[in-house]
Amino acid sequence: MNHIAFILIIVYALAITAVLAILLKKMYKRADAKFDYNNVIQKKTSAMLFDLNGILISDRDSSNNEHVLSCLHTGDHISAFKPAKDIETYLNTCIRHKRNVTVKIERSVKDGIVKRIDLIFSPFKSNGEIKGIIAISQEMYAKDREAELLKKATDLAEQNTAAQEQISQLDAQRSELELAFKKSSKHHIKLQKAMYRIEQQKQDLENALSIINEQKSELERVNAEIKKSNQMKEIFLANTSHEIRTPLNAIIGFTNLLLKMNPDEYQLNYLNNIKNSGNNLLFIINDILDLSKIEAGKMDLESTGFDVRDMVSKIVSTLSVKRDDKDININVDIDARVPEVVVGDPYRITQVLTNLVNNSIKFTGAYCQIDIVVRLERIVNDDVELVFKVSDNGIGIPKDKQNEIFQSFTQANKDTTRKYGGTGLGLSITKQLVEMYHGHISVESEEGKGSTFTFNLILKMADSTESAKVTPSAATPVATDRSISILLVEDNEINQQLATDTIKAWNSNTQIDIAGNGQIAVDKVKSGDYDLILMDIQMPVMDGNTAAKIIRQLDPPKNQIPIIAMTAHAFKEERERCFSNGMNDYVMKPFDSDDLCSKIYKYAVDMRHEVKPVADEADEAVSDEPFNLDALMKICGGKTEELSRIVGVYAISIPSDLSDLATACRNKDIDTINMKTHSLKTSFGYLGMSTAVKMIVNLGKLLADNPDSGVLPITQIADEWERTAPLIKEYVKQLQTGPSL
Fold first, then answer.
1. Rounded distance between C-alpha atoms, residue 70 and residue 85, angstroms
2. d(Cα 37, Cα 299) in Å, to the nearest integer?
3. CATH code of the domain covering residue 646
4. Contact at 8 Å (CB) between 211 and 273?
5. Contact, 507 vs 596, CB < 8 A?
6. Tens digits of per-residue pLDDT, 494-531?
């Protein structure tokens, strides 16, 4: 037999076997079919009419007893039909969903014929309304395809057995062919060479695979080392930040206290130099930390509503002062089409603009002219593209250096660092922050004539909820002489003195008790009575987070004492850890004295002297008055000025708390949800806003079961505040000025 022909026979036989296997599989699968609707050989149809209550209206179509419902008569209810269980449910489903509903009543097989009876409920409509239900019975007969398919499967199985026998015969012939083939030296040599080449290729592949596995193992080892190195770097930066910020807190804090003590001209000059140097060092630390977070992919952008015009105004008011004997003039031009409120990270966008404006101030002479321009580029769906330009009349940047200035640790000229200072990180961080907003930054400059930096940001449109809850400006601390009891938890003696002197300079009636670590703090809280706890984080014996968790587990009212974290740790994770452990707020070291005192007033004065909410219980009646300040007026000792200050604090804190609550709902942050609902309940209770109190109580119960369900109720509470706030403001104004004639 010809060798090629024999091989073809083998291939053909194998192909037949594969095809038979596939056909068998399909036939057996089809044998599962119960009824072939495509081969119906007879069909009978009858109909009856029911009203919407299931009462048979007409049985004329069943006079020949062909309808499956023929056991019913006019006036009978469909539930009297027993062959099908829950028959009334199918009729009601047809009415409710306004679509056909099919019920299988009977199926039988006899002499190769399958009989099936179906009952179809179909809505009868007139002018779009269902007037009744038509019950249509279908009696169908079809061939028993199941038996037919099983017979075909049996036939194919027999054919498969025959094919297998042929394959066995072909295998025997193949053995004879191989024996004859080996006797041919020529073919044998070719076969040996081919086998050798295959073996060699196999060896080469195994060697390559071994090398790849070794490289993979090495890469995994290096990757593990890199991860460990990054973790160590992160820990090092966090600890370094803490260790540097701790003495900086003392340097800047005591300098600010000395500046308030009417120093003479020389002392004032020295103190300002110390303060500026401390602030410059703080800027450098922040730049290094920001760069490390960006490089590690851990820089997260917040999403909160903010006013672009207000943000630019704050930057200008902060920077447009005489500095280093320079006259600084900053002009602002904001496109009227720029939305009043957009959604983004106001802190990081402020950082970008501040970096650019600071650069302009740094690299100009005695007279500094800066122009800030904000233009609306486009609005697509909910995306808002804004273009910012910052121009100055400074020293300018050489053409060949304009691309390099956005690189880390790079400035336009190596003499720049010696003359103007800085690390060269500001523009690098600015560029990367802009790119995180899918934007681009560029510069146009001419030496000796100044520079123009242009960048764009893709922000989001604010919805009505976010527009009503724009993050407010930091308030100037309210002056008060109320007696306040504070537990200061701080292990550093210098920081103890600084915090004590700062607070007493604001309110001399404050009583400050000091705990050197978290364990002492817990013991003092158990035995003492405090309005507020200022909690350091990194301490010996017991850290601040552990102490806060223990305090929150004490019996009321000890577990309700407000806790403000005071820490030199600068990372966002530390702030989130503080909140998760039950702290109410957060102050970064070096702390801003106004920020610290404002928060002390909010938690120790404003919230601690809590008025019981008017509608604390769900079944308590809601007052017809939108607000009632009588109880709050008593707390203020009848002083309208004090009442006005407290109301002003609420005008800032309530929108902020509502915004934080909405964010917590989106993030399913249960701890923040509980904290903010309690804070808002207290605030509305002070103001006698009984409707808002009841709304926040109900919201708290709703959010306990489903945090996602809070967006609409929060919007409604925000609307209630927006309606009531102007009325409260006008009422307080009339108390101060007296009724108009």
1. 17
2. 63
3. 1.20.120
4. no
5. no
6. 888 888 988 998 898 999 999 999 999 999 999 999 99
Residues 129 and 176 in one domain: no
Mean local confidence (pLDDT), 548-562: 90
Q: Is 689 part of a structural domain of the chain?
A: yes
Rounded to whole angstroms, how far apart are CA atoms 379 and 386? 9
More confident site: 252 or 318: 252
Task: Decide if 385 contacts 462 (C-beta within 8 A).
Answer: no
What's the CATH code of the domain at 341? 3.30.565.10
Final residue of a structural domain among 438, 467, 496: 467
Residue 509 falls inside a structural domain: yes
In a domain, 131, yes or no: yes
Q: Is the peptide bond between 472 and the residue preceding it cis, with omega within 30 degrees of 0?
A: no
Token pair for residue 316?
């200008």
- Domain holding 680, by residue range, is 630-737
Task: Work out the number of other CB atoms within 10 angstroms of the CB of residue 257.
Answer: 16
Same-domain check for residues 634 and 685: yes
Q: Which of 435, 467, 499 is the last residue of a domain?
A: 467
Same domain (yes/no): 178, 320: no
Residue 59 phi/psi, 5-degree rounding, is: -125, 20
Q: Say what the pLDDT of residue 634 is.
A: 67
Distances (CA, A) of 124 to 72, 127, 131, 135, 136: 20, 10, 6, 10, 12
Q: For residue 128, what is the domain's CATH number?
A: 3.30.450.20
CA distances from 109 to 142, 292, 495 (A): 10, 78, 94
Q: How far apart are CA 642 and CA 629, in angstroms?
A: 12
Q: Are 657 and 676 in contact (CB under 8 A)?
A: yes
Q: 17 φ, ψ to 5°?
A: -60, -45
Q: What tens digit of pLDDT does each residue of 62-117 get?
A: 445 667 887 888 888 988 888 888 888 888 999 888 888 888 888 888 877 888 88
Of the candidate ranges 28-32, 52-56, 208-212, the one whose mean pLDDT is the lowest: 28-32
Residue-by-residue DSSP string for 394-454: SS---GGGTTGGGSTT--SSHHHHHHH---S-HHHHHHHHHHHTT--EEEEEETTTEEEEE
Question: Do residues 329 and 406 both lie within one domain?
Answer: yes
pLDDT, residue 470, reads 56
Do 152 and 72 sit in the same domain of this protein? no
Cis peptide before 626 (omega within 30 of 0): no
Query: Does 131 share its domain with 152?
Result: no
What lies within 8 Å, CB to CB, of 276 at 6+ separation is none
DSSP assigned state of 77: B
Tally of domains in the chain: 5
139: its two tokens: 């009696």
Only one residue has tokens 């108009």, namely 740
- The secondary element (H helix, E strand) that includes residue 392 is strand 383-392
Q: Is 90 in the same domain as 162?
A: no
What does the alpha-carbon distance between residue 610 and residue 150 come to, in Å, rounded to a whole number?
83
Query: From CA 376, how far away is CA 676, in angstroms rounded?
Result: 35
Q: How far apart are CA 462 and CA 480, in angstroms?
A: 37
Task: Note whether 451 and 493 are same-domain residues.
Answer: no
Phi, then psi, of 667 in degrees rounded to 5: -90, 0
Q: Is residue 258 part of a domain?
A: no
* CATH number of the domain residue 591 falls in: 3.40.50.2300
- Report whether 437 contacts 344 (CB < 8 A): yes
